Amino acid sequence: MLIIEDLQVKIGNKKVLKHVNLEIQPGETQILFGPNGSGKTSLLMTIMGYPQYKITGGRILFKGEDITHMTIDERARLGVGMSYQRPPSIQGLKTRRMVQVCGNGHIDVDTLAEKMNFTEFLERDINVGFSGGEIKRSELLQLMAQDAELSLFDEPESGVDLENISLIGNTINTLLQRVNGTQYDKTTKRIARERTKMGLIITHTGLILDYVTADKGLVLYNGTVAGRGNPVEIFKQIKKAGYKECARCAA
Amino acid sequence: MRGLDDMAYKAKDKKAAIGPDIDLDSYSLKSATHADVKNLGTIPEEDRERMTLAGLDASEKERAGTYIQRDATAVHSGSNIDGLEIIPIRKALKEIDWIRDYYWKLASVDTDKYTARVRLDLQDGYVIRALPGKKVTLPAQACLYLEKEGFNQNVHNIIIAEEESELHVISGCASASHVTRGLHAGVSEFYVKKDAKLSFTMIHHWAEDVVVRPRSVGIVEKGGLFLSNYISMKPVKSVQTYPTTYLVGKGAVARSYSLLVGSPGSELDVGGRIYLQAKDTRAEIVSRAITNGGNIISRGDIIGEVPGAKGHLECHGLILNGGIMQAIPELKGMVDGVELSHEAAVGKIAQEEILYLMSRGLTEEEATATIVRGFLSVDIPGLPAPLKAEIDRAVELSQKDVM
User: Fold this and answer.
1) A122 found inside a domain
2) Which of A82, A97, A104 sits opposite B359 (nearest CB)?
3) How many CA atoms lie within 13 A of B136 on its CB side?
4) ipTM score of the complex?
5) Count of H helices and E strands in chain B?
6) pTM recorded for the entire structure
7) What is the C-alpha separation between A196 and A25, in angstroms, rounded?
8) Other residues' Cβ atoms within 10 Å of the Cβ of residue B272
9) Which residue in A74, A34, A49 sits closest to A204, CA to CA?
10) How far apart are the CA of A48 and the nearest CA of chain B, in angstroms?
11) Could you tell me the residue range of the domain that residue A76 belongs to?
12) Does B3 touch chain A (CB under 8 A)?
């Protein structure tokens, strides 16, 4: 379980998160809505542990441990993973090696890459010259290898062409144990009961909602949670009335 | 040849154009004569290990032949393949007529006091030649080993890829573990003939107080390819080298790659100069340097003399734990229609990259090491697998010093 209590965060002198509260139960996936600059990415980066996001108040608990002051790698090893929107490219570091790093040497890179339709990129330097969609596939491939318990997705559908959007959606579902095409004998309820993976997904377009059935949605507005509810309903409201209005209605 | 000796004598105190000046008289020219080594397995383990670090494969499993010199003595010289010749140069000068067509034909004895010293006090060196049409895909290996404390080793090497041949050479230089101080001066002349391919990979593994002055000149004829790699990642007091290559035949290509790590107290002044003198010639000079408290000067110079010649220069430097990193790229176009370009960058590892890797579970140190390794992993096209493996190994070994 992830518990965020009264979280306050600054970048430099600017307050980017103001008293954020959030709980994600084991097996639960939540969607994070909000306009540009509302603090969505800041929240994900703070959970992951980026040092430039300075926590000035509150705390973060993960699996019963206080991770508020843990380093990024300690959090990663505890089971927090992130799919970035614009990760850095690293010259000379092959994608294959990066995926190995994520899997801590215990995975079959080729089989995983085949699933992600990403085999031809394994011998290329990570993110060097990748298109927006290729970056997303690469990020998801890394998350698959990492097999994180809490996955944070920063706009996983942005820049992805229509051909690959369902691949992205299905991969997120697999990562979060949302559906399991190979286990037809299990009822949806049973899958839900056995599910342990947690997810927090930022979406701008809402496109991902067509593929991933999330449990809850929340709206971040001006650095604080302005509303919570059914993600599909929230998205309808945002489309109809805009974020400002929606922040009010959902509250 | 009398004339050359006179020229050398006149140049015996001539300072080099660049690099710190060395007092040659503070090193000894005398060393014991070492016994022949028939079987490479009989080299004492301690020495074999040091040689291995400079790329020597004592099993010769993936080598076409071997030359080993200890101080001033050629102790082993032999080819395992028809069409590949490996001969100590002093023997070649006594027994082979054609060597006179190559000996001091590219390098000038009066370049500076180091070339003069090699001319006047030659202690040996190797001649490696692939016969016409012969494709030798396994690398030939040479190791120049410094064993006597304070010794001045002077070698002269001649490497010839005859017409339509293929030749790969890995030339390792190392010092024994007890050696702290020494001077290595080496003249190398490279001849890449019509449609031949030569790759020459030099790996240095010296000690903290060793001074190194290689002087290399190469010529590439029509359709020839000359790949020259230089790897120096271990502590060394001072290296200054600026090899020159002339592309004289249509379509000749030269590529040069340097991987350098400058440890505290080390001074590396390494460059490459390529003259494009014929139609459709191509040159590429790539260097990746990391200073870890040392002083690195990375030079490159491409001179385009004919229309249609193309060249590119790339110097990338990282400052990791202090030190000085200087990139000096130069281009000179002398006619219409040449295309020359360069990119140079000196910087540090981006924090963003370290954090990205940490979020995949690596510690900060592991993340830094992974990025450094990536930085030094340059894809060098045209190298056979055993050579690639040696370069990867050298990069891997450098990690311990860099971190």
Assistant:
1) no
2) A82
3) 31
4) 0.94
5) 7, 21
6) 0.85
7) 8
8) 28
9) A34
10) 7
11) 2-88+148-250
12) no
pLDDT in tens, chain B (403 residues): 679 999 999 999 999 999 999 999 999 999 989 999 999 999 999 999 999 988 999 999 999 999 999 999 999 999 999 999 999 999 999 999 999 999 999 999 999 999 999 999 999 999 999 999 999 999 999 999 999 999 999 999 999 999 999 999 999 999 999 999 999 999 999 999 999 999 999 999 999 999 999 999 999 999 999 999 999 988 999 999 999 999 999 999 999 999 999 999 999 999 999 999 999 999 999 999 999 899 999 999 999 999 999 999 999 999 988 899 999 999 999 999 999 999 999 999 999 999 999 999 999 999 999 999 899 888 887 788 888 888 888 887 776 666 5
Q: Is residue A116 part of a domain?
A: no
Q: Is residue A114 part of a domain?
A: no
Distances in whole angstroms, Cα of residue B380 to Cα of each of B161, B315, B334: 20, 15, 29
- Report d(CA B383, CA B118) in Å as an integer: 30
Note whether A74 contacts B: Cβ–Cβ < 8 A.
no
Tokens of B346: 């000196």
A100: in domain: no
Type of residue numbered B176: A
CB distance from A143 to chain B under 8 Å?
no
- Token readout for B152 is 């001045």
- Asked if B378 and A73 come within 8 Å (Cβ–Cβ), the reply is no
